[in-house]
Amino acid sequence: MMQHLIVFPVVLPLIAGILLLYQRQGLVRYKRIVSVVATALLLLVAIGLLRQADSGEVTYYALGDWQAPFGIVLVLDRLSALMLLLTAVLAVGAVVFACAGDDEKGSNFHGLFQWQLLGINGAFLTGDLFNLFVFFEVLLLASYALLLHGGGKVRIQASVHYVVLNLAGSSLFLIAVGILYGATGTLNMADMAIRVAELPAEREGLVTAGALMLLVVFGLKAAILPLYFWLPKAYSSAPAPVAALFAIMTKVGIYAILRVYSLIFGDSAGGLEALEQPWIWWLSLATLAIAGVGVMAARDLRLVVAYLVLVSVGTLLAGIGLGSPEATSALLYYLIHTTLITGGLFLLAEMIGLQRGKAGTRLVKGRPMVQGAVLAMLFFVGAIAVAGMPPLSGAIGKALMLNAAEGIQRLWLWPLLLLTSLASLIALSRAGSTLFWRSQRGSINGSPLSPRQWFGAIWLLSAAPLLVILAGPVSNYTQATAEQLANPQVLIRTLLPEAGDAQ
Amino acid sequence: MELLYAITTGVLTACGLYLTLRGRTFPVVVGLTLLSYAVNLFLFSMGGLTTDGPAIVSEGADVADPLPQALVLTAIVIGFAMTAFVVILAMRARSEVGNDHVDGKKEDRE
After folding, report:
1. Which of A167, A471, B3, B80 is most buried when burial is the number of CB atoms within 10 A of its CB?
2. Nearest CB to B89; choose among A160, A171, A174
3. Could you give the ipTM of this predicted complex?
4. Over the stretch A439-464, which tens digit does the pLDDT of each residue have?
5. Residue-range definition of the domain harbouring residue B38
6. How many domains does chain B have?
7. Is residue A115 within 8 Å of residue A17, measured between CB atoms?
8. Chain B: which residues have CB within 8 Å of chain A?
9. β-sheet bridge partners, residue A410
10. Inside any domain, residue B17
């Protein structure tokens, strides 16, 4: 049983998704129960896997018992276990929130939600470049449909951009995979790392082209500067639980960058070592700057949060650009924080919008809210955390990141990161004071929010204090993860024992 | 054969790219389709082009690499599904927004 645990994050949502397709509409209660139970089980599985990975051992699951490099393998190390747990925690919040009524605005919400989880989990686990493509497609297909959930003009417009861009991205991904396969003769990432280390000089150009093309694809998923234009519109128009789940989608891109470049183009890659670093470093700084401007310019709370996602992408990529294990450790801590908090803020924005009636989430005068005081408190916690003010988790994440920069890097990162935080702070205080204080006179009416919505938002936003209280264990774990990533030899030797002996 | 193959892939990619950058949804969809054809051809060629190779590995013969064929098969299936989806999406966008511009703007005549 235990050795099969690795495949569960893929199989469980698949089965749940199939069960949920039974009827397009109706059976609301049954669907909600199946979906929530499946997501909760996923959380338990993820906790189990995290404990398994915490020993420092790399374990893998060979599907059909076909061994690597020929078979398809799912690889579990500290990084993938962490990402799985993060996805499961986020998904629990989002799915419970959706059960308050968002799931009935269109058909098949829960089934698609589970399949999106299947794609995300698969992308985190796979040890094979082509399967990474397949899982990307699975999660993208589900996300296209989820983005359209509920319909409406704005969503369809945003979807057209999102779908077309991602289809073009998929083509690039295939070209990159093709080039790398042609040059190295393998698709297994561990095997590719060995082949790249022994690469004949005349193929270096080809591999460089393939690797940088992959960076474009992952950059598109992560929303790095020239490729981010789809993000604000898509995220701000998506239904709230979907937007919350999408908070992990940009992180899939960041995970892929971390995984592929640390494993294949690590220390042993010779002339190709860390070939992505200069690109990522400068583009991430530019992303930070643009995101700061975007946060300030946004006139809608959802758009503010969407740009905050972009700020976090810039910060995380800067962490990759720094390129040291300390920076990786800092970025992983920041990644946990930012995923949960921005997810929570998307849910909170929806709740605020519901209470304000016609004004919605636009930053204009609106009618007073029934449960304004509690919402304001939650917004305050979320805003403090996401802007990186002490005492909540954002401050620790940001401090770790600033601390990891060295020498000349500080000169660039410190002012940019701090100014962007200032911009977020200004934008959030303006948004908060408009939403909660500048309300029209008049009687307070409207219905109170569902307890499920409260649960979703509080579940995610409680990460802010929890990550501070548990900062010690969490940062120990991220440090161990960063060290494991810096030594890909362990993973390679586990997957391919014979090749490891030969070296 | 390599030259013909390379030229075909290149022309398909160029046409696909040009059409993808157009302002209306229909050319964009056709462009994406052409692009995916080009990608499939490209993937196929990555195992090296051989003629008359046996499909099943046998001794001594120069066999065709089976992996790119499997990849192309997967890519075709996924590409087909995506094209179907994007066609429906474009039609929905046309009916909801009222015009077929990718940005939904009426006044913008390419």
Report:
1. A167
2. A160
3. 0.92
4. 777 777 778 889 999 999 999 999 99
5. 2-49+66-97
6. 1
7. yes
8. 20, 25, 28, 32, 35-36, 38-39, 42-43, 45-48, 67-68, 71, 74-75, 78-79, 81-82, 85-86, 89-90, 92-93, 96-97, 102-104
9. none
10. yes
